[in-house]
Amino acid sequence: MASKNGMGKVSSIPMASRHMSYWDMFATWVGANANNGTWYVGGVIAACGLVTASTTLVISGIISYLLLAAAGFMGYKTGLTAMTLTRASFGLRGSLLPSVINLVQFIGWASVNTFIAATSMSFLFHDLFGWPVYGKPGGELGVIVGIAVMSVFHLLSVSVGQRSVQMIERVGIILVFVFVVWETIVVFKTVSFHQILHWQAPKALRMTPGAAIDVLAAFNLAWVTAASDFSRFTGVKRNATQASFLGANLGLYWFAFIGVIATIGTAITLGHFDPNNSDPSTIASKLGLGFLAMIVIILTSTTANAVNLMSAGSALTNMTRRLSLKVSLWVVTLVATAVTFLPLFVASFLDIFTVFLDGIGMVLGPEIGIFLVDYFWLHHQDYEVDQFAKINGRYWYRGGVNWIAILTWIISVGCYMALKHVSVIANTIGATFVVIVISMVLYGGLMKLTKSTPK
C-alpha cells in the first residue's frame, strides 16, 4: 500500500507480502549485536570490573530491548519504516530531525565496524605479505586496503537489499557461534575465572557503573530506531517483538561478555590494562587465535553493517523523499567508507568512539521517548497510513512540524548534558534512561495540555 499526496511516496508493506520468519528476525538481531562493535563495547566497560560490567550489561539490555520490542511492534502494525513513523510525532517535515540523527549514527556505526574489521585485515596482511600490523610504523597501509576491501563487500551486500540481511545473518550466526565458543575456551585456558572475577582496572582508568550504563545505552538504543525497518517484513506479532527482544539480548550478552573477559584476561596476561587495546583484532592476536579468528571478525562486520547500512539508507530516503532505497544504500555506504578513514588522521580510534557514543546517548534517548509515547499513549496504537504524506493532514501540525516534539527534544538534550554533571546520577544510574523518561513525560504532558493530539 502506498500514499502520495505531495510529501513523497510512503510505502507500507502489506501483510500478504511479509515473509520474515521468527528465525529470520531472531537471527537478524543476534547478528546485529554479535559483532566486533559489541565486543569492543564489552572491552570498554571492562574498566568497571567483571561484576559491575556484567550487571550493567544485563540491566541496560533488558530496558533497551523492551523499547526495541515496542518499536518493532509499531513496524509490524503499520508496515512502515522507522523514520517514516516519526512523521506522526515530529510532523512530516519535522521528521527530518530524527532522520538526520539516524543517518549520522548508522553511518557512524558502519564506520566503527568497518575500521575494526580493517584492523583485523592488517593482521591478515601481516601473516600473508609481511606488512606491519596497525599500531606499528607503516601499519596504516593494511588498514587502508582493509577499508577498501570491506567497502566492496558492503556495496555488494546492500545491492541485494533486505534479502542480503537474511542471507548474511543465517550464515554468519553459525560461524560467530563457533568462534565465540573457541575464544572462551582459549581465554579460560590462559586465565582462571577467579582471576578475572577479582581483577580491577587501575584507579585512573576505572569506569563508574553510571558511565557504563550510558555507554551501553548509547550502543543499544541505536537499534531501537531501526526496529521497524525490519519488523515491517513480518506478519506475526511475536516475530516483531519477542524474537527481536531475545535475539538482540542474546547477541549483546554473548559478545559483550566475551569482550569483557577477553580484555580482562589479556590485561592479566600482559600485566597491564590499556583501553586502546580493547578491539577484537588486538586481543585475538595477543591470545594467539590466529588467521581464522581474523576472518570471523571480518565476517561479523558484514553482518552488523547489513543492518546499519539498511537503516541509514531508510533514513536518507525519508529525508530526500526522492531517492530510492537502493540508491540511498549506495550513497550511505560510500559516505561511511570516507568516515572510516578519520581515526587514521584525526585521533585515536578509542577517542573518536567515546565521543561518538556520548553524542548518540545525548540525542537518541529523547527521540525514542517521543515517538514511543506518541504511538502508544497519545494515538493509542492507531496511526493512519494514508496521512503520512498528506499536506495539511493529520500529521501536518504547523507547517509540517510538531514544534512540541522539537521543543521536548531540545529540553531533553539539555537535561542530559546537565545530568552528566550531577555525580549522584552520572556515576550510579547514568543520564540516558532518566532523560528518556523525562522526554516521555514532558512530551505527553505538553501534547495533552495543548490538545495537539487528535482524539
From TrEMBL:
InterPro entries: CodB, Pur-cyt_permease, Pur-cyt_permease_Fcy2/21/22. GO terms for molecular function: cytosine transmembrane transporter activity. It is a multi-pass membrane protein. It comes from Secundilactobacillus paracollinoides. Its main location: membrane. The keyword RNA-binding does not apply. Belongs to the purine-cytosine permease (2.A.39) family. The chain crosses the membrane at residues 43-76, 96-121, 141-160, 172-191, 211-230, 251-271, 283-307, 327-346, 352-378, 399-419, 425-446. This is Cytochrome C oxidase subunit III. Keywords: Membrane, Transmembrane, Transmembrane helix, Transport. It is found in: Membrane. It comes from the Bacteria. One of its GO terms (cellular component) is plasma membrane.
